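INTERNAL TRANSFER SHEET
From: sequence group
To: structure group
Subject: DUF1552 domain-containing protein

Please process the attached sequence and return the structure record in the designated field. Keep the field labels unchanged so the import script can parse them.
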Amino acid sequence: MTNQSKVAGNGRRLFLKAAGVSIALPPLQSVAAPARGNTDEPMRIVCISSALGLYPGAFFPKSFSDDYELSPTLQPLAKMRDQFTVFSHMDHPGIFSKHGAMKSVLSGVDPGGAPTGTAVSMDQVAADHVGYQTRFPSLHVCVGGSLGASWTRSGIKVREHGDPRDLFKLLFVKDSEAAIRSREKDLREQGSILDLLRAQAKQFERRTNPSDKAKLDEYLTAIREAEIKLQGMQRWLHQSKPTVDYDATGHPHSDTDYGFLAPLMFDLLFLAIQSDSSRVFTAGFGMHNRTIELDGVTGGYHGLSHHGNVPAQLRQLQIIDKFYVDQMARFMSRLADTSLGDRGNGTLLDKTMVLFGTGLGDAARHSNRDLPTVIAGGGLKHRGHVDAKLATGQRTPLNNLYTTMLQNFGVQIERFNNATGTVDLS
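Return from structure group:
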């Protein structure tokens, strides 16, 4: 039995080793969810990305309809085909940055040199909407390296957690009293510094000329974001974290042990959703040229993406691509199997939009056109395989879908970044 099958086959328990202690995540019912003041279950967004795209020849179905035949890469989703929509002919029209497009996959805007506020990623618009109603406005994980797809309004790249031990401690391990006191001191000092910076900026504002005002506005925006973050962190500092039972055993062979790390990361996200630790998440598979530990894969990942249509390389690349979709399917199944109970009708999947997207339509050609895109769950009306090509022959901006997702999340927004409209999923 491979490491992949041992982990993926264990639907209720996964293991990680943290701070010298072997930890096992518990059965679902052992996580203590927070009390709610009403029965309205909130919506969530989970954005899954692959830095090196997906091989289009095995991803896109051959026909457009509700009863289309699933492509080889999409086969893991077969049991849930009425819960997701596949799009062809969608992309970010202004992006031609090859591998650099991973930075713009959730925004449609190249963050390098973009004016403040224009390159914000969709997930961070959602996170701003939630704020510190949850302990974390958003959470970000990656396997195999960072994608750098999430950007704040002030142009700051959001940190991704690549080590499950760190994420587990952040979510579920109680901080010591000494650590809390130290954190309180740090927050007070940071608050004092921000007070001083704001006062200095206000003094400078009276002397500023029009050409400098834009830069000053960016500076003040960053200060306001930092203040909001500090206030939110202070609010949650003494709030108990969700409780999780743990006991013995297991750890990954390496940081390319995807068969262990990927299911674990998604289980941590599931527990974060279940405990309402956050409502906005990203999960990424990074770019590198190491060999991913999956049965049948022997070549470096980046090299395989430039397959040259060599059958042996294509077979290995498709194993990796199908593994990614299998993780999405497994995650969706856990959400679909979890009833809202007394918090409302339906399941967690009905209240969670799961996006699979990528900045590369065809990594072999460094193409940023016709991006493989799947949207699932979220109480949306799913439409099988949709041809998003317009009557003009142009492709639909992917930000149209992001606008629809943000509206479904509760954000009052007419259009996101360079969107030209919305997508009909109602």
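Handover comment: The two ends are 44 Å apart (CA to CA). The longest helix spans residues 177-205.
Transfer complete.
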